[in-house]
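Problem 12. The chain below contains 143 residues. Write out its predicted structure in token notation.
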Amino acid sequence: MFIGEYQYSIDTKKRLSIPAKFRQELGRKAIITRGIENCLVIYTAESWEKLAQKLDSLPSSQADARGFSRLILTGAVEAELDKLGRVLIPDFLKEYAQLKKDVAVLGLSNRIEIWDSKIWEDYRKKTEVAVGDIAEKLKELGI
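Solution.
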């Protein structure tokens, strides 16, 4: 399980170190793709397979389903962790997530999110202010 928040930097060769606590579960290969809210998401091969199956089951007759599947699937790349636990972030994904040098690496149970540090900080602060309202809405889901 991936949990926690870590601050890292993308090096000049566009590589990002994955937190040591995440590496064992992630393995040598991972899938990186576009996420919602202009972040990147890293999945294990197993989690990616489950997500891909769910995307395959969406109705291709619905424009929103097609668009969402296209965004996630066409943005996906296989990434291999090097000996130091780094992955290469392709330019098109860096641009999508507006990643500069400093990034936040977030463990979210079955996935890892990568955010530009400034964008993450703004999002986190906004969400912290609204956490009471969010909790009320989630109560309907039994959370």
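Discussion. The longest helix spans residues 45-57. Students who got a different answer should revisit the alignment rule from Section 12.3.
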